[in-house]
Specification:
The complex is a heterodimer. Chain A is an alpha+beta fold. Chain A contains twelve helices and ten strands. Chain A has a six-stranded mixed β-barrel. The structure holds adenosine-5'-triphosphate and magnesium ion (MG). Magnesium ion binds next to α1 of chain B.
């Protein structure tokens, strides 16, 4: 059966190439878009991922950073510090805003960082200092390069000037960058507020972050407590929600193109062989055998198409990573699973019409007309 | 001869219904002995293909029964028919009908495999059979690379591989030039006689008459007078087969004008080992008949 399916498939090379090629392109559309979204989502949470905090404490109802503002009274800090299992607490002040240099304007997460921060600061410094003093700012190296400024130059936030004291790496989240100013400068920007935005908690070695988070929840009232991974998931979800519709539509288009290409080529291939299938029926071959042949052919084409699509997408992400662009492509197992499922669905659906066609073949027709 | 491979009892096939009803076959009976070669001839539209389809378990007669190896095809469930076709019947077509994507070997082996043989055994058997038929050098060829005669020999191998009791051939020589066509028919005759397989051929080809044991003339869905003329191998007299006494020797039936000739033949058959020709063509019979 396999031999017959393979031979049928490879006998007409043009059909085979058309179906596999079309399939590969359609699946690549889905895979690469997923990879782009994954790449973006991985970058979105770069600050949270690298913050060094195990637990994020925020104002009740605030679950992420993007487009959110959290306000906590300073008193929360000591309450959290007192919880068993807490190694250190770092308050940060946070605001989503714009950094400006001349006419250049870049959206940024502005972080107000205490002098003795145990978490939440820049994690890779290429030049200058890691903790900003008053009047100083640490900005992303890539952004600085793009604007054409460096250490000692100044940028504005809310029309206040800051002098660049450090350049950080990996702080570009694709939709914005992360900049760091001093704790007190931040308070001034916001009208001398005493309030803080988040408390970044590190737990003691050997302690379970989940257990400590539970303790904070029970001991400190009126706060939202999340593990780092939960906080990151919420952050991704915000961006995910924004791109979900586009991704869904593009996935659907990819699916439909794949289905159309596959269904058409398999239908044509079966149609071209209908006399041979009719002959086999006349010779006493059961239709179920022929269904299996057609289904095997579709499966083989689809699997080869899938492998090609994956190879192309991986190749593309490798090429993109070599180029100096912000974009990164990440093929996730979940996306691969989705595309594989889509492929199987396509194979099954594409075989429906040919199977019907075979079912209707009249074996007696072999003796009627050549 | 008592060992019937096929027995057709009063079958009728009507197509359509009501005013558009046509009887393609009307009340036909026929018995075919094991190893017998029957040629069915007749004008276009006379019902030859319809008859072949019914005998081939591809079409149910409206009335009557068809017995194949002790089984009544007409009483069998539709779902049982493919297996009968696969194992008990061999088919040979005018246009060969080989599978274009498969090699010569696979074209033959696939049918054996589908009948339950392992791939390995099926391929070995197919290779042996094809080699016997002179295609040993062509096993890996695709059908498109073969001549017409070679293709038909592959088709013959395919029809034989499951060792069917009956082989049905529809115009097997129509797409071959006359020399090759005759070779194929001699091959089929040889196989039928050697292996005791019955052969039913539908053809317009007059030359095939030479290799047939019996020629039937179908017209308007009925067999016309089947006066088959044979020659007594002893005295050379032409006689009506059905009225003659007969003897079977070496798998072949011989007919005699009298008991005397029959005894003389049986004393030393080798002396008369000539092919017993059917001398009267059915068309000639038909003409004689219509002059009546
Ligand atoms: N499926 C069908 N429906 C209706 N009528 C049919 C059908 N098949 C055959 N017939 C009719 O039955 C009659 C016998 O047809 P059949 O094909 O058996 O003849 P044939 O002897 O094989 O002819 P030919 O030598 O041209 O192949 C014809 O009149 C034909 O028109
Ligand atoms: Mg016909």
């Amino acid at each position: 059966m396999l031999r017959f399916a393979f031979r049928n498939l490879f006998h007409k090379k043009a059909y085979f190439l058309a179906s596999v090629g079309g399939m590969a392109l359609a699946l690549m559309l889905i895979l690469s878009l997923d990879a782009i979204v994954n790449g973006i989502q991985a970058k979105i949470t770069t600050y949270i991922d690298h913050s060094g905090a195990d637990i994020f404490v925020s104002q009740p109802g605030v679950r992420n950073m993007h487009m959110a503002s959290s306000t906590l009274p300073l008193t929360v800090l000591d309450q959290v510090r007192g919880v068993v299992g807490v190694e250190s607490v770092t308050p940060i002040r946070y605001l989503g805003n714009i950094i400006a240099a001349g006419d250049d304007r870049y959206p940024a997460y502005v972080i107000g960082l205490p002098k003795d921060a145990q978490a939440g600061g820049p994690w890779q410094i290429t030049q200058g200092v890691a903790i900003p003093k008053d009047g100083e700012i640490i900005i992303d190296r890539g952004i600085a390069d793009a604007i054409g400024i460096g250490l000692g130059d100044s940028v504005r936030i809310l029309s206040k000037e800051f002098r660049i004291a450090g350049l950080s790496e990996g702080t570009d989240t694709f939709i914005n960058s992360v900049v760091f100013i001093s704790f007190d400068d931040f308070a001034q920007l916001r009208g001398n507020t005493e309030a803080i935005s988040f408390v970044l908690v590190k737990v003691k070695a050997g302690e379970s972050p989940t257990a400590v988070a539970d303790l904070i929840r029970t001991n400190v009232g009126d706060v939202n407590v999340q593990l780092r991974a939960e906080f990151a998931t919420q952050e991704r979800r915000v961006v995910g929600d924004m791109s979900t519709d586009i991704v869904t539509i593009m996935n659907l288009i990819g699916f439909l193109i794949g289905l159309a290409v596959m269904a058409l080529t398999i239908y044509i291939a079966t149609f071209a062989r209908r006399r041979e299938y009719g002959l086999l029926k006349a010779l006493g071959v059961r239709s179920s055998f022929l269904y299996r042949v057609v289904l095997t052919q579709t499966l083989i084409s689809v699997v080869i198409g899938l492998v090609l699509a994956l190879l192309f997408t991986l190749l593309m992400s490798a090429i993109v990573s070599l180029l100096d662009v912000k974009l990164t492509l990440q093929v996730s197992p979940a996306s691969l699973l989705k595309v594989s499922t889509v492929s199987l669905l396509i194979a099954g659906l594409a075989a429906v019409l040919p199977v019907k066609q075979i079912a209707q073949l009249e074996p007696a027709a072999v003796f009627r007309g050549a | 001869m008592t060992n019937f491979a096929l027995q057709v009892n009063g079958i009728t096939k009507r197509y359509g219904s009501g005013t558009t009803e046509v009887a393609a076959i009307s009340d036909i009976s026929l018995t075919v002995a094991q190893g017998e070669i029957v040629l069915i001839m007749g004008p276009s539209g006379s019902g030859k293909t319809t008859l072949l389809l019914m005998v081939g378990a591809l079409l149910k007669p409206t009335e009557g029964s068809i017995w194949l190896d002790g089984l009544d095809l007409t009483s069998l469930n539709e779902r049982a028919l493919p297996d009968i076709r696969l194992r008990q019947l061999g088919f040979i077509f005018q246009d060969f009908k080989l599978l274009s994507a498969l090699t010569v070997l696979d074209n033959v082996a696939i049918v054996a495999e589908l009948a339950g043989m392992t791939t390995k055994a099926a391929r070995r058997k197919a290779a042996d059979l094809l080699t016997e038929l002179g295609l040993g050098e062509r096993l890996t060829f695709l059908p498109e690379k073969l001549s017409g005669g070679e293709k038909q020999r592959v088709a013959v191998a395919r029809a034989l591989i499951n060792e069917p009791r009956i082989i049905l051939a529809d115009e097997p020589t129509a797409n071959l030039d006359s020399k090759i066509g005759l070779q194929i028919m001699r091959l089929l005759r040889h196989i039928a006689k050697e292996q005791g397989r019955s052969l039913i051929i539908v053809s317009h080809d007059q030359r095939i008459k030479d290799i047939a044991d019996r020629v039937l003339w179908l017209e308007d869905g009925r067999f016309k007078d089947m006066v088959t003329m044979v020659t007594d191998p002893v005295c050379g007299m032409a006689l009506e087969r059905d009225k003659a006494t007969s003897a079977v020797w070496d798998g072949q039936a011989f007919y005699f004008c009298s008991e005397g000739c029959r005894h003389e033949f049986l004393d030393n058959p080798a002396r008369f080992q000539t092919h017993q020709d059917v001398i009267s063509s059915p068309s000639a019979i038909h003409q004689e008949h219509s002059l009546d």
